[in-house]
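check this:
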Amino acid sequence: MRRYLDALVGNESLRGSLGKSIEGGALHHALLIEGPAGSGKRTLALQIAAAEVCENKASTSHPLPCGVCRACRLVLSGNAPDVTFISRGGRATLGVEAVRDAKEDMFLSPTEFPVKFYIFEDAHTMTVQAQNALLIVLEEPPQSTKIMLLSEESEAMLVTIRSRARLLRMEALSPMVMKRYFEEKEPSLLLPYQNDEAGLTAALLAANGRLGEARRYLSPEGKAELKESRDMTDALLASMTKDASFGRLCDAFGALPTKREPLAAALRLLHLALRDLILFKKAENAPLLYCESAEVADGYSRSVPLPRLLYMADRVMATVEDIEKNANVQTALTLLKCDLCR
């Protein structure tokens, strides 16, 4: 059986359907690739571009892309003149000017390949004006143009954009799949964990199915960051048991980051931990994403009833959403502390 888009880890169903579309000359002119940071969106975009122009595309004895022909090497090395990345360049949003510049270039003939590719990074940050400018091309695209929108949240895109692009959702990878990948492709990352199975498990769980995040957490810097985050989360969990005092809860909350994005990340980790405890209450063999073992989950969840865990998880996630919508950070935290003490 022919292999498709090999550089993308996991996502077997997506790779198969996409590969067959490319092989049959039926690749959609616009793709909306959705997934969190580190989930492989950029890798997938390059694999699609390479497969579309692969010189061995018609040869079923080769994987698609083959990775060895001149066209594949140009695309995968980042040196293809007909593959253009459009980014926000450190700005908060991807603006209309960047889209207009790309749009003008789309109507010029390709330089190297029969088709040109335009890959919009962080497409969920595109302004409404930018999306409307792009919509004109999506409605009547040049025959030689393929557009890929990489987005962490497709719902942030206009309905008119979403309706004209094929939505591809990246799948979360299991810790076992990620571990197998690193063993085969990047074994040096696992060397520090030869005698630290718990640390390796914690890093893979914290990645939440994202290979890029797992790679970061396995690094020395990421390991130290993860330990600090987990210590903070463990303190929060301990302060939220029925026997804990309000003073202990305040101490745990006082250790949280004060800046918006790090704070939201810390509370998301807390929500992940609470999610584990809720699932463990319902089924002791439930897959855990924060707790390294059932014993750890049992230790935290034993003194907290399920309705209380559900309430706490709901309030923590509501606070994350408020913070990400620019609510006052200190006010949001104060309200959360009050809620958790009820």
In short: The mean pLDDT is 90. The chain is about 50% helix and 5% strand. Residues 208 and 267 are 14 Å apart (CA to CA).
